[in-house]
Amino acid sequence: MEDEQGEASLEAASRLQLYAYLQPREHHHTYLAIMRLFTSTLLADLSAGEVSSALAGAERDGRVDIGESHIDVVIPRLRQLVEWGNLVHGRRETIAASIAEFQQGSMRYQVSKLAVRVQRDVDELLRVPEGAREVSRELLPAIERGLGELGEALAVAVTRGQRDPGSLPARRAREQLAERVTTLFLQHAELAATVRDFYAYLGQILTRHHLAPEEIAGFRNLLVEYIQLVVEDVLRHTPAIATALSALARSRAELLRLLRPADQLGTAVERTRGRGEADWQELTDWFVDRPGNPSQVTALREATTRAIGALLATVRRATTGGGLLPSRRAELVRLAGWLDAATPKRAHAVYAAAFGLHSARNLLPAPEHDGDDEHTPWRDGPAIDVSVSVRGRGDRGARGRTSRIMDDPITEQGLLAQAREADEQREAAAAELAAAAVNLDEATLSGEALRALCELLTLAMAQREGASDPGSATDQVRGLALTLTPQVGQITRIRSTSGTLTLRDTVVGISRVETRGRGGR
């Protein structure tokens, strides 16, 4: 287990090296130009000389530094990209007039698969504007219609496959089914991406404390009008989409069987979204709530509520001038106007008068030791902490109540004792559940044991999509496992000092499991 985790960690570290060329110590413009050259065409196979010739135009345009297109400079850059994993070696026969030309032309380079994705994401990020991204609301009815068409296409594919799986109509039915699935997941991916980007921009804006009146009016229209349309559309189409997903869940196994991978691609192939159980679970979780796992629709509604509350707080702070951080925007704008209209000499005087940047005066007591260093400028010396009251209000008076004592051994020991007691109670409850697992129907559990059992029951039920699915949960700390097995007609009664818990059509199993933490004691 530890070996697998170590290999996974090494693989993750090697993949993260693919981003190293974006922010190296220097020459990142050259690395970026080289990667764009390799990703601009399909199956690019270039030598160092060809890369050097291509970089010459970028050097003339000023996109790379002077001298970066020279062949002796390009070769180390290509070797560094190979070391990071962005490029791979490729050789082919070449005709050269000298040994140096042969060495430069025989070693060819190609871009790796993961590096193509990294560069594609980088170029997309650089093209994204700073403003809000429009939410693709029109995709919601398209997803609803696509799920209905997908159900019909699945029924046709199953019927024709049962008659003659190898016939032309059966193959066409499977192709149409794959087309519906691919279109559905592409539409959902675009919708989810636009929603995430829009609310990320909204959260970035709402964190600002000082907004101009025209900005507040613009954001008010954005929240009141645009977000209302987005939430209304999502809530209007979600019930129908959830119903269609629930209907497809019953025939999901047959759907995935019909969408099996092409034999010519082999087994180790990255499949298109919608061909795996995890993809459909992710799509369902976006629209449908599960116990302990709220959907993204619920998160969107809650985020909208928080955004409106934050906007109201911003408007109240801007109009009343109250709060811990009063707005000084009008005063700063007026000061900026004075500085813009002043001469250089007067601008320095205004700046010094506004911010108190007069001649330096040492008003502190003498240090314990002589720490003067005539070779260190004052701007590079140690900084002195300035209190919040001095920074914000220019007031040195003490405000508020006396701060708490940071080192409180009595409270610390009390909290440690409470933690030990709680840990002992959890351990005793786990031991009681393990002992009662042999005959759970006749045992009478304590309140702590029942609470521990209910926590595991909640986790196990959250994994199930329906009442007919099994579920399981494990307490890794206590080494306790619980399983839920559907069984028609079975009634499980769990008695405790607080009452009786009745589970219908369900068999509950409790067992001990060995964990690394328990085994190491």
Structure description:
By secondary structure, this protein is an alpha+beta fold. It has 3 domains: 1-127, Winged helix-like DNA-binding domain superfamily/Winged helix DNA-binding domain (Arc Repressor Mutant, subunit A), CATH 1.10.10; 138-264 and 272-319; 433-512, no CATH class. The chain has helices spanning 2-16, 28-39, 48-61, 71-84, 99-106, 113-127, 139-163, 168-206, 213-249, 252-258, 277-287, 296-320, 329-341, 344-355, 388-393, 409-436, 447-462, 516-519, and strands at 46-47, 87-91, 107-111, 444-445, 471-475, 480-496, 499-512. The strands form 2 sheets. Strands 4, 5, 6 and 7 form a 4-stranded mixed sheet that branches. Strands 1-3-2 form a 3-stranded antiparallel sheet. The longest helix has 39 residues, at 168-206. The protein starts with a helix and ends with a helix. The relative contact order is 0.05. Mean pLDDT is 79; it is low at 517-521. It comes from Actinokineospora terrae. This is TIGR02677 family protein.
Low-confidence stretches: 517-521
Radius of gyration: 33 Å
Number of domains: 3
Number of helices: 18
Could you state the order of secondary-structure elements as H and E? HHEHHEHEHHHHHHHHHHHEHEEEH
| Biggest sheet architecture | 4 strands, mixed
Indicate the proportion of strand residues: 5-15%
How many strand segments? Answer: 7
